[in-house]
From TrEMBL:
Residues 31-146 form the Activator of Hsp90 ATPase homologue 1/2-like C-terminal domain. Belongs to the AHA1 family. The lineage of its organism: Bacteria, Bacillati, Actinomycetota, Actinomycetes, Propionibacteriales. InterPro entries: ASHA1/2-like_C, START-like_dom_sf. It holds the Pfam family AHSA1. It comes from Nocardioides euryhalodurans. It comes from the Bacteria. This is Polyketide cyclase.
Length: 174
């Protein structure tokens, strides 16, 4: 994968998928599809930029720890609705504001001319959540780019993303 400088900016856009609002992000990697798939699915690769998981994905559920925020992050249950390696992964988990509700994440990968495009989408129907979740995914996906390109993850500071980028995501749902 190639390296490029990271300048915090709001890259998410809103779109409707099957009648539900999603915030959608894209990142491009000069790497084969299978390599980018590994970066979002293999625990050791995932741990470099966001967290790790354990369990048997074939069971439809794994435990996830968002260790980038804290080394002793609480376990979250991630339900796997669709896994078509190496191009599509659809998951659900409890929403942080209401554990009785779930939200969905969709990861799609496509490769053309040696470049793999990662499209990440998260169900997002709440303006208050969008204000923090949008900047959060810009932050984590920039960390992914840095992890996969040999960049300096310590140079990526969440304070550069939030609250600076919140207005973009608030405006997208209002």
């Amino acid at each position: 994968m190639s390296s490029s400088p990271i300048t915090p900016s709001a890259t998410g856009r809103f779109e409707e998928r099957d009648g539900t609002a999603y915030v959608v992000f894209e990142r491009r990697f000069a790497a084969p599809l299978e390599d980018v798939w590994a970066a979002v699915t293999e625990p050791a690769r995932l741990a470099r930029w966001i967290g790790t998981w354990a369990g048997d994905p074939a069971s439809g559920e794994v435990g996830f720890w968002m260790t980038a925020e804290s080394p002793d992050a609480p376990r979250e249950s991630i339900l796997i609705d669709e896994c078509r390696a190496p191009s599509r992964l659809v998951m659900r988990s409890a929403r942080p504001d209401d554990s009785s509700e779930q939200w969905t994440w969709q990861i799609d990968l496509a490769e053309a001319d040696g470049v793999t495009t990662l499209t990440f989408a998260q169900e997002m129907v709440d303006v208050t959540l969008a204000e923090s979740v949008g900047p959060g995914w810009d932050y984590y996906l920039d960390r992914m780019v840095a992890a996969e390109t040999g960049g300096d993850l310590d140079a990526i500071d969440f304070d550069d993303y939030y609250p600076v980028l919140a207005a973009h995501y608030r405006a997208g749902l209002t």
